[in-house]
Amino acid sequence: MKQPIKITVHGGKEAAHLADALHCLNGSQSEGNRQCVVRMFAESEINTEWVDTNPPAPVLVPLGPNRTRNNHKVIVHAIDGPSPGLPVVASMKGDDGHWRSYNWPADGIHPHGQTGSDLVGHLPPAEPESVKPREWWVNIYQHQPEFFDSKEQADEAACKDRKECRHVREVIPGEQDELEAMRRWKKDMLTVENEWDIQAVGKELGLTLGTKIRPAILPKIRGYKELLQRTLEGISPGCRLAEDIRKALNLQP
């Protein structure tokens, strides 16, 4: 096997020779051409050095069941077949369900780049890529929701009739438990929402049109409670109205 040449360029003028030199070294060039390249480098003051390399040994395809990168079933029958450069003899199951005979390199990988037909069933599984779930902020309206990439964008684009801004997140593989929990939460929330009429509550509290109802409920209740307490202080303790107010406020007589 040819040994690669290690090239160290000492000046800009040698760069013009580099492409020609590498072209001469590529492929099955003769030893004479190779020595010519070495002399050219020496004349151009390019330091040349023969080095020994020990590339990692390829993982050879074993006999038996395997699979391709695009998930076709394969059975390897022989790993010392007669075809030059393609010693692996195997059968692959096609999309039509029929088995056909094919040949692969010793490591099962196409020499000119990754392909779907590469044999990968004998290789250790690749580390899963870290997937970041996508998320959106959704302006909820009576008819059509609007999606945004940030809360700031959603608030800036919101109309007066927006009911709420809801944060939603994509569920990625491996988060099925979380997805199921979200489904249960949604079901519980829908059950609660069906038990009361928020628009009617807002109307009874005297909220004006366009006011957000949910955050206004508790302040309104506290305001009415304070009003009743002040009213109670200004009337006779024994009258019927005082008793009704005490009962409404859950106060002891």
Describe the structure.
This protein is of the alpha+beta class. It folds into four domains: 5-50, no CATH class; 57-123; 135-184, no CATH class; 196-253, no CATH class. It contains seven helices and nine strands, in the order E-H-H-E-E-E-E-E-E-E-H-E-H-H-H-H. It has helices at residues 15-25, 31-43, 151-157, 176-194, 198-204, 213-233, 240-248, and strands spanning 5-8, 47-50, 64-67, 73-78, 88-93, 99-104, 135-140, 146-148, 164-169. Strands 3-4-5-6 form a four-stranded antiparallel sheet, with no helix packed on it. The protein has a three-stranded antiparallel sheet with strand order 8-7-9, with helices on one face. Strand 3 and strand 4 form a beta hairpin. Helix 1 packs antiparallel against helix 2. The radius of gyration is 39 Å and the shape is rod-shaped. The protein starts with a strand and ends in a 5-residue tail after the last helix.
Give the strand order of the largest sheet, numbering strands 1, 2, ... along the chain: 3-4-5-6
What is the first-to-last residue Cα distance?
105 Å
Number of helices: 7
Strand content: 15-25%
* Main sheet summary: 4 strands, antiparallel
Principal-axis shape: rod-shaped
The stretches of 5 or more residues where confidence is low (pLDDT under 50) are 1-16, 22-31, 33-53
Rg over alpha carbons = 39 Å
Order of H and E elements: EHHEEEEEEEHEHHHH
Helix content, binned percent: 25-40%
Mean pLDDT: 75
- Total domain units: 4
Q: Would you report the number of β strands?
A: 9
- The helix-and-strand class reads alpha+beta
Brief sketch in words of this structure:
The protein is of the alpha+beta class and 253 residues long.
